[in-house]
Design brief:
The complex is a heterodimer of chains A (about 425) and B (about 280). By secondary structure, chain A is α+β, with helices and mostly antiparallel strands. Chain A has two domains: about 200 residues, Rossmann fold (3-Layer(aba) Sandwich); about 140 residues, Coagulation Factor XIII, Chain A, domain 1 (Distorted Sandwich), CATH 2.70.50.60. Chain A contains ten helices and 20 strands. In chain A, the strands form four sheets. In chain A, strands 11, 13, 15, 16, 18, 19 and 20 form a seven-stranded mixed beta sheet that branches. Chain B is mostly helical. Chain B is built from 13 helices and one strand, in the order βααααααααααααα. Chain B is globular, with a radius of gyration of 20 Å. The two termini of chain B are about 40 Å apart. Classes of the chains: A alpha+beta (about 425), B mainly alpha (about 280).
Chain lengths: ~425, ~280
Amino acid sequence: MKPIIEVKDIGKQYKITHERGRYVALRDVIATIMRKPFAFLADKAKRATGLTKKEEFWALKGVNFSIQKGEVVGIIGHNGAGKSTLLKILSQITPPTEGEIVLRGRVGSLLEVGTGFHPELTGRENIFLNGAILGMKRNEMATKFDQIVEFAGIEKFLDTPVKYYSSGMYVRLAFSVAAHMESDILLIDEVLAVGDAEFQKKCLGKMDEITKTDGRTIIFTSHNLAAIRELCSKTILLEAGHVKNFGPTEEVITEYQNLLKESSSTDLRKETRRRGNGSIRLTGFATENTSNEHTLISGERATFVLSYECAHPEKITTVDVGISIHKNGVPIATMYSSYVKKEFHTIAHSGEFRFLTDNLPLAEGVYGIGVRVLADGTEADWPQTEISQIEVRNPREYTKKGYRTHPGSAIIVQGTWEHEPTV
Amino acid sequence: MVVMSTTIVIKPKKIFHWSDLKELWHYRELLYFFSWRDLKVRYKQTAIGAGWAIFQPLITMVVFTVFFGTLAKIPSDGVPYPIFVYVGLLFWQFFSSALGDTSNALIANQSIITKVYFPRLILPVSAVITKLVDFFIASLILLGLMFYYGYTPHLGGLILLPLLLIIAFMAAVGTGLSLAAINVKYRDVRYALPFFIQILLFVTPVIYPASIAGEYSKYLAINPMMGVIQNARATLLGTMPINWTLIGISALTSAILLLIGIYVFKKVERYFADIA
């Protein structure tokens, strides 16, 4: 039997425009043409003839794999490894730059929970709207309607605008619509990161059910390795836009964890996407825990080490250095030395800045790291966005005591629970 | 077991392919749902709901009648000014609001575009359909005015109205598609748009008859809305005989606008999700 998904030599290229922000304003373009018409024409001509090349970045390159009907395949990899890009190409949101994909069946994608939900519309109305956006037919929705409502458990609130829903109800309804879609292939991107533990379990159960009983195929990306383990028989490991490994889940997860260990010491010298005047260059980033291992433990001592090089240290009088921690691309903590009135006045040709904490407040999970350095108030070096990833584990005593942390949460607030009845 | 009936092949995209039309047809229900959503949301958000569609042209008509008709004494081809200007406003507001909404259709639905696939053309088209509903609601006032002033439309001319509406539709969608595509790339274009639309109002015979331009009125014919509004008045009010040449020119111009619009839109469509 022919595979249900065949991915042949897929590549996706993005053009990087520097220092311009995300959007181009027509006003600026016109201003440039008016002020320097000849420079503008010369630049256009050079681009057209290929003399100057725009900076290119391959988010995916030479990706090949095929998936059989009824398989549940996980995709794992660092942030920026190309997981989301791959799903976006598979779901036709963005076309590949090269290569070809053959999908032998109807595709449904759930790249975000509640895409197109409108807050003003009721639960009932949103079921139909969301279903239509996901590509369901009206009669299909009519037959599935009761099941959708029942699975989401929102019978009582069916005619309430979803803006009054709790986030849990919202997620349940959205997942329920997508899970009842009659597609042969279901693409799911990190959606289980939201919702409570019980519902996540229910979703995993539902996904398991639809593959086993309906023989549907699921592709599923997640940072939640436990979910991948539970659900996927095979897993793809993406690394810098390439398929690093595609095989039995256990084997691939082990390889990914080894990769995480290696990558906890990052060489920044080769990073080309960076900003700043270059008076100081950041050359590497690493983490250390109490026992000098790279994996960090919640609530314990952690050290972030940032190495640098500087051509003319004598010219620099104050240095401000910062590290930021990101969860799913969102910064959750930013530590600049200047924030705690610490400025470095003498630096060497090369050296290390260290950030130490006795009590790492991060919950178990994978986090992205950003770094930036300023010399005398101007940006010296800012390697673009997330340069590294760190893995944080719960302390062993947690497991011993049977404690757990909330999946998808980033912070642990340590404390004790008490109860006092009102007399 | 489900029989695999559909095979999708994903490749680097070409600008236009005939299968695009088939796909558009396949997604027709989504077109309905987007229009339905826009109407529903609007009527939920504003207290007066559907009344808004009537209120807006009605108040504009009253203000224009007082200032342009009564005070400035702008000629109206021998027809009472309120009904004269209302016919113009009816078509003009359909055109201008449809144009405004189509050009913003992509940006307004950015979050959906980056998360799910469907033919993007559906978004601007559904925006216009919403405006079409407003048009029909606002037409009720016209019926009232015609009854009050004792006008009966040419029966034969009534058949012409759908044609005029189609021309206005093509002109709005065509221009809107081009603007929507530019809007995605250059985010400052939308700020210039209201001004642009306002200028268009004054070069279109909405508040004045085209006859005041005298021999120059033939140059105004490039504007497809001129043909639409002039002939709508001819049909409904009998201000002049129906001008088929003018209709022909308008139809041609708006068809060209539509083709350009579709081309520009399809060209940019490929990378909407990458830059949105």
